[in-house]
Design a protein that fits this description.
The complex is a heterodimer of chains A (110) and B (711). Chain A contains four helices and five strands, in the order ββαβαβαβα. Chain B has an eight-stranded parallel β-barrel. In chain B, strands 1, 2, 3, 4, 7 and 8 form a six-stranded antiparallel β-sheet that branches. Chain B has a five-stranded antiparallel β-sheet with strand order 26-27-28-32-30, covered by helices on one side. The chains are: A alpha/beta (110), B alpha/beta (711). Chains A and B meet through helix 2 and helix 3 of A and helix 2 and helix 4 of B.
């Protein structure tokens, strides 16, 4: 699991690579927390995430809830089709704005 | 910074830290420092917690409960720092192996937690299990933080429900379904628009507690077809949803998937009732597997004979000892969990009469479990529906201990209506009672006690009811000996499918008659998935083992039998638009509001002269709108189950009103049923001719007077 932080057009982009499960979810959360706290709008780039467990999906929902509470905006970028299917079956998909490309993601945050 | 003394472990074993746990709640509960395990056994001499990583054959650790961790008969322990998403657990219990005294402890076996909220081992439907695995049904932990947003159980009045009984897998497993996630909870999601358009506002799911589809699996001796435990009336774990029913079961996300389905159904105004099986478990008799209860506390969980064998009131090998206080609490805890954590709207209890037997099997006058369920604070708004009989000979339709709360599957409704529609004599007086909500059975309880149905999973489908004289269960591999012989069915002249247009028309007409009577009866209507589009099981009236096209819903029927489907949709709409049909009061058969007409009056071929004689096959009734609040129109229903057309003299409508035709089942679509607003007036207002074996529904209201003679 790896995390990278960057900026694009003044928007924070958090890129995660690997699997997010019960073991890695707390580590991811710890690592991206400062960036999440500071930002009002965030793109969460999941295009290199190959697996999201229950705990991983819950991490996403927690982040969503935090952003909703501070009227911030969150976009998920590049979620694989498999993961989208799982998110759809379990209802997690209903909460999120998804984007296929960075340009779309930036537009969704505009 | 830890702030509590009990945040620190007191013991350690092979690197695993633990301490004394909390006795309640039972099961495995995530606590701030780890997981609290708590389990009951009244007769064990020792208990060991066995922890696995998911899917692994060998445990990562086995921890004996120290003596001081047992309080009374409860063993409890908190284990620290567990990765609970990747964890499976079970127990070993030491104690006597003495079947004659009912004790069957076996430390060599790992047994599952009766309170397990997720169970692994059958993660995907029909995937070949690893039979060498020492632990087949593996207890896991569940995330219980689903985001329900503003959802809650709908609390629809029970008499306003139209219940649709469906099998989770069978509903969407057929190749014609054509969407991802076939045969799963997620598959049902895709069909919510269909249910909504149909007009049902409640789905009753055949068992969805974890069961083993491989139980008693076998090959058909002639055809070689694989026969499975398809219906699932055999519970492995009462708190766990069936993993194989979830598209995400392989990822262990069945809890979220089912909760999401319930949330989405609620958004569409559709309630969810679970068919629950507390009368026995999947452990069978003394030859069955040791999964959980048998190895934990056989004498507490099962009703045993004096020499230690299993009483078999369920017809399935064993009988759960439901009125033992510990088992009673398990049932209560379980239902509360499904009501509170899954937002389930109600329960239908399979062979519920067993729940009223004492620890020796004798029926109780005042069964504590049934009383507890009826008056429970968490369940107080849940529908409780009993299948009021058992396989031990107790038949309690009309006499089930109801505490003013329980409803019943009305088996007498089914039988009377079937006989009436097929043209049997001598049932007209019964039918008069059945359409009123069966006051003969439920006088002190009201029509809400009567779940009216003509077909359910158990028995013929509606289509087969009028296509077969006898059952054809050869595909079950039991020489056609299984399944009920009392079907009250009629094949309309040809056994099975036919290309004879006349026979097929008649069958369609009888199906319409069935839906018409069902939707016009007071009580709670229920029908089986697919009956609205003529689903056949080819004469098989007991498809418990058929995971194939015999049981699955063929979605192409919606097109092929569009006429029936349209009729059913409109009939349901008619029921929902007419409160007089859904009242929870019995008709009184007299005029108590001064309208000049009784609330219900019966008629025959002559108005005001019903023929209740043994040779009669006709009945008509008139419902007065003024006896029911918000009822807009009087309703007149004529039923001619004779094989010849008959004239029916119609009672006079109100002053300056005229009768309009809403339903005439002898007509083809679109003239078989009309929207109320488009119903044509009857040309002759005094008399109508009813075709053979047909029904007619007329309405008269204040708005009808200006449009006589149109259409």
């Amino acid at each position: 699991m790896k995390v990278a932080l960057s900026q694009e057009s003044g928007i924070s982009v958090i890129s995660i690579e690997g699997s997010i499960d019960g073991k890695t979810a707390p580590l991811v959360k710890e690592e991206i927390n400062p960036a999440l706290q500071a930002a009002k709008s965030v793109i969460l780039d999941l295009s290199k995430v190959d697996y999201l467990s229950s705990a991983g999906l819950r991490l996403l929902l927690l982040i969503y809830r935090e952003f909703a509470a501070k009227q911030g905006k969150l976009v998920l970028l590049g979620v694989s089709e498999d993961i989208q299917t799982v998110m759809s079956h379990t209802g997690f998909l209903n909460f999120f704005t998804l984007a296929g490309t960075r340009a779309e993601a930036i537009q969704a945050l505009a | 910074m830890d702030t509590r003394v009990d945040y620190y472990p007191t013991h350690e074993h092979q690197g695993f830290k633990f301490r004394r746990g909390r006795t309640l709640p039972f099961g495995a509960t995530v606590v701030p420092t780890g997981v609290n395990f708590s389990v009951f056994s009244s007769a064990a001499t020792s208990c060991t917690l066995v922890i696995f990583r998911k899917h692994e054959q060998k445990p990562i650790v086995e921890i004996d409960f120290p003596r001081e961790f047992r309080t009374g008969d409860v063993y409890s322990m908190i284990v620290f720092d567990l990765d609970y998403e990747d964890l499976e657990y079970g127990y070993r219990f030491g104690g006597p192996w003495d079947p004659r005294s009912g004790q069957r402890f076996d430390r060599s076996k790992i047994v599952s937690d009766p309170y397990a909220r997720v169970v692994g081992g059958r993660d995907q439907w029909c995937a070949q299990p690893d039979w060498d695995d020492v632990y087949q049904h593996r207890a896991r932990l569940a995330f219980d933080d689903f985001d329900w947003e503003e959802d809650r159980p709908l609390e629809t009045a029970i008499t306003d429900l139209v219940i649709y009984e469906l099998h989770v897998r069978g509903f969407t497993a057929h190749p014609s379904f054509g969407v991802r996630a076939a045969g799963t909870f997620a598959g049902i999601l895709a069909k919510i628009p269909f249910l909504k358009e149909l007009g049902v506002n409640c789905v009753e799911l055949l068992p969805i507690f974890e069961f083993d589809e491989w139980e008693n699996s076998r090959r058909h001796p002639q055809t070689g077809e694989l026969l499975l435990n398809y219906w699932g009336y055999s519970t492995v774990a009462f708190f766990a949803p069936k993993a194989g029913y979830a598209a995400t079961g392989r990822l262990g996300m069945q809890v979220d998937e089912l909760k999401n389905l319930i949330k989405e159904l609620h958004k569409a105004g559709i309630e969810v009732i679970l068919d629950v099986v507390f009368n026995h478990t999947a452990e069978g008799d003394h030859r069955g597997p040791t999964i959980s209860f048998r190895g934990i506390d056989n004498r507490s969980y099962y009703i045993l004979t004096p020499d230690g064998y299993y009483y078999n009131f369920s017809g399935c090998g064993n009988t759960l000892n439901c009125n033992h206080p510990v088992v009673r609490n398990l049932v209560l805890d379980c239902l509360r969990y499904w009501a509170a954590d899954y937002h389930v709207d109600g329960f239908r209890f399979d062979l519920a009469s067993i729940l009223g037997r004492d620890q020796n099997g004798a029926p109780l006058a005042n069964p504590p479990l049934l009383e507890s369920l009826a008056l429970d604070p968490v369940l107080s708004k849940c529908k409780l529906i009993a299948e009021a009989w058992d396989a031990g000979g107790l038949y309690q339709v009309g006499s089930f201990p109801a505490y003013n709360r329980w409803a019943e599957w009305n088996g007498k409704y089914r039988d009377s209506v079937r006989k009436f529609i097929k043209g049997d004599m001598g049932v007209v007086p019964e039918i008069a009672g059945r359409i009123q909500g069966s006051p003969d059975l439920y006088y002190y309880r009201g029509p809400s006690a009567s779940v009216n149905f003509i077909n359910c999973h158990d028995g013929f489908t509606l289509h087969d009811l009028f296509s077969y004289n006898g059952k054809h269960n050869e595909a079950n591999g039991e020489n056609n000996n299984d399944g009920s012989n009392d079907n009250y069915s009629w094949n309309c002249g040809v056994e099975g499918e036919t290309s004879d247009e006349g026979v097929n028309r008649l069958r369609l007409q009888l199906k319409k008659n069935a839906f018409c009577i069902l939707m016009l009866s007071r009580g709670v209507p229920m029908f089986l998935m697919g009956d609205e589009m003529g689903r056949t099981q080819r004469g098989n009236n007991n498809t418990y083992c058929q995971d194939n096209e015999l049981s699955w819903m063929d979605w192409t029927l919606a097109q092929r039998n569009g006429e029936l489907l349209r009729f059913v949709r409109m009939m349901i709409r008619f029921r929902r638009a007419n409160p007089v049909l859904r009242s929870n009061w019995f008709y009184q058969g007299r005029d108590y509001v001064g309208s000049g007409k009784p609330d219900i009056s019966f008629h025959g071929t002559r108005a005001w002269a019903p023929d209740f004689s043994p040779g009669s096959r006709c009945l008509a009734f008139l419902l007065c709108r003024k006896h029911t609040q918000d009822q807009q129109a009087d309703i007149y229903v004529a039923m001619n189950m004779h094989w010849q057309a008959l004239p029916f003299q119609i009672p006079k409508p109100g002053e300056r009103e005229s009768w309009k035709i809403v339903v005439n089942t002898s007509m083809r679509a679109p003239e078989d049923i009309y929207e109320t607003s488009e119903a044509p007036s009857l040309n002759e207002q005094e008399q109508v001719i009813l075709g053979p074996r047909s029904m007619m529904v007329l309405i008269a209201d204040a708005c009808t007077r200006s449009t006589p003679g149109t259409r």
